[in-house]
Structure formats: C-alpha cells, structure tokens
Amino acid sequence: MTVTFRLNGEDYRFRDDPMTPLVDILRQERFLTGTKAVCREGFCGACTVHVDAEAVPSCLKPVGLLEGCEVVTIEGLSAGHQALHPLQAAFEAADAVQCGMCFPGMVMSLSAFMRDNPDASRADIKAAMVGNICRCTGYERIVDTVADCLAQQLHTAKVAGGAGV
Amino acid sequence: MAQSMERSFIAAGSIEEAVASRMVGAVVLAGGTWLMRDPLRGVELPEAVVTLHRIPFLSEVIIDADHMVIGAGVTHEALGKALRGIAGFEALVGAAEGAANPGIRRVATIGGNLCSIDFAEADLAPALLACGAAVELETTSGAKRIDIADFLNDRRALLEQAILTKILLRRDLIASAHIRLPLRKAGDYPVAIVSMALDADKCCRIAVGSVEPVARRWTALEQAFAGEPGGFPRDAERAAALAAEHNDFQGRDGTEAEGWYRLQVLPVLVKRGVAALRATEGLA
Questions:
Q1: What is the nearest CA distance from A62 to chain B, expressed in angstroms?
Q2: A2-77: what fold?
Q3: pLDDT digits 0-9 by tens, A3-45
Q4: List of domains in chain B
Q5: I need a labelling partner for B198 at 20 to 30 A (CA). Which of A4, B21, B75, B269 fits?
Q6: Residues in chain A within 8 Å Cβ distance of B103
Q7: Model pTM?
C-alpha cells in the first residue's frame, strides 16, 4: 500500500505495510532519530510528533492513517539554519536538558501546548506533561522554563499591542 | 520493518462499506492506541483492517435540548471539550479528560474505548453506564440500538457482525461524578473507578470500572441509597458505610493491583463521588 503525506514540509511517499508505526518510518527510513522509540505503548511521550498540528505519540500511529496529513518532527520544528523554536531556545538558555532522551518529545508536546494555551498556569503546564516521562526527573526546571517562556510571550505581545495604540 | 506487504487496509468511505469489510473478517481500526500495542502483547497485527476515520458522522457530537448523540469516532479530547460545562455530564467529562495522557486522548476514540474487550480499565465504560447511555450498532440489516450494559456484556459476539457507530444519552441528569484511583496521578491505569449520576428524582445510578473484567452497575448500592431517608445518603460518610456493607464485587488480580485492594478502595471512592455530586451545581 502507498501512503503519501507531508513530512517536515516535504512530500513523502511510503510504500509498505500500512500498519507500520510512524516512529519506525521516521527513525529507520528517514533517519530522523530525534524521535525516540522507548515504551512503544503511548506512556512515555518520547516519540511525540505533530500530526496536523496536534502532539501525538508516533509509536501508536499506523502510517495508513496518515494519508494527506502534515507530520512535523523535532527536526522539522526548526531546521539547522533557522533560529530555534522559542521553547527550544529557552530550554537551552535554562540548561534544562539532562540526558536528552525525553526532550524531543517534551518539546513537541509543550510547543503545541504553548501555542494553544498562552495563558496557561503552572498546574496547566504540569497537566500537559503527564504523558512525557523524564527518567532524570528534571521536571521542575522544565516547568519553570515553560512558565518563563509563556510569561515572556505575553509580555512581548503586550508591548507590541501597546506600541500599536 | 514491514510485517506484511499483503495486509488489507481499507479506509472505508461509508458505514456500509465498513460493515461489509467487517463481515469478511476485517478488524476495525479506530485511533489505534489499543490495537497498535498488540505486538507488545505477543499478538500479531490483523491481516485485514478497516478504518473509520473517513466517515464524517462518526466524529460528530450532537447536543439537543433533551438528548445527545456522540459518534463512535469522537476522541477523548474532543468529547471533553464538547461536553465541558453541560450540567449533569460531569462524569463523562471527567472520564474523557482524566483517561491516559494528553497525547493518547487526542487519538483514542470513545468507540475504541468501548470496543476493546480486554480493556478492563476503560474510563468511559463506567461513566456511560452511570449516565444511562444506549449505543447504536450498524449491521448488514440496519441500525440496532441497545442498552450499554447489554453491549458491554455481549460485545464479543455483537461486534463480530456489527460496528459501533453512536452513543446516545438522555439529558435528564442533574449531576454526575467520575472518581478514579490510579497508583500515580500521571498516566497510570486506574486501580478502580466509581462513576455516579443523579437524575431530577434523586435516582442514583452507580457504576464501577476496572475492578472486574467488565464494568458494571452497582445495583446493590443503588438500592441501598434509595432506601435512605430522602432517597439519598445524608452525607458522604454514610455513602461510604453503605458501600462497605454492599460490596458484592469480585476483584480481578492484575500487575498494578491485586483484587482485594480494588475492593478495599471502593468505599472511599464512593465517598469522594458523593462529595463531588454534592459540590456540583445540580445539587447546590
């Protein structure tokens, strides 16, 4: 079976078993190894990618359901020659990354969450992270960074709004 | 990577096409969050699959003044958003928004939750039992409506020749609550679930999930509640005492908890449920 979808902004055609999990195509066919295959049952969040702008576990997404979809992985969030996504830059600045295994999934989950929830509270951030497990237990610094990043976004928006008056 | 180049994978464009595929043995694929874990359980993925995501009405939630219809392809996240703030359906919102984790909730469907026969921990099953739901199945001879309790008990046979298409609810509830106990707050399957719903006559339906292999109504406790002065326990403590007295479940042993523990926590969950009911707008 042939399945065609957009992968990080480019057309991609897959011809093989439609029940192949997306994570295997990303890692084994496209060598996009930022997406991690860890638990393979949707608990850990390390394989999170965006499908049609929603953060979902790629281990449980059969490629046959992706016809016509837009898939973005951590590699597509910001290509090498581009500026980092603001959340990536904030994590780097805060030195929030520890072993790095969970981080691509954290960034994919939380970047979508920040886009959809600009006024999120600390409790909202924690609730959004329950599907992303960090074995280094570096949660608090991650939550701090997302909260700071959201506050910065709000401040920037207010300044821009004020300048326009 | 490929497990089978010959696998049949049909994206049905109509429910009739989906039923026809089911009748020749295709397995229904909804969000994939249960089926895609088959290889981890040592089960091979099915040779023939039919998907429902191209059938628009399965993703609709229709809310009228006196009833609502939920398409079987509605995701947990979409269900929570659609019902949030509607008095009487707090249990369903709690189940939809508390199950699994955000990524799974964006993908997993209500139909998948109800049709995964070995999934004792399904959150929506007890919530829908408490809310008095019916389901609609599509068969080769047309649509068929049955009570959700009958569906849950008979679904292995029913789903051999039918596809779940809709969940139907009356809007006659004034309050409901969904209380779940996972070992950890984040992402775990619940050890036990108690869902409760109350109608305008203070008739209370109580359902329990995850304790036995299939969710079911706790009719002994419903009758005990009805026998109280005013037809409802005077407070949460009294409700817990009645729950301890009328506990007629057979707890299932599992990796996350043994059966005796599932039974032991039920009175506390009932207590929390009654407290939650009393805190809703409907009982204020």
A1: 7
A2: Ubiquitin-like (UB roll) (3.10.20)
A3: 999 999 999 999 999 999 999 999 999 999 999 999 999 999 9
A4: 60-284 (3.30.465.10)
A5: B75
A6: 42, 45, 48, 55-57, 109, 131
A7: 0.95
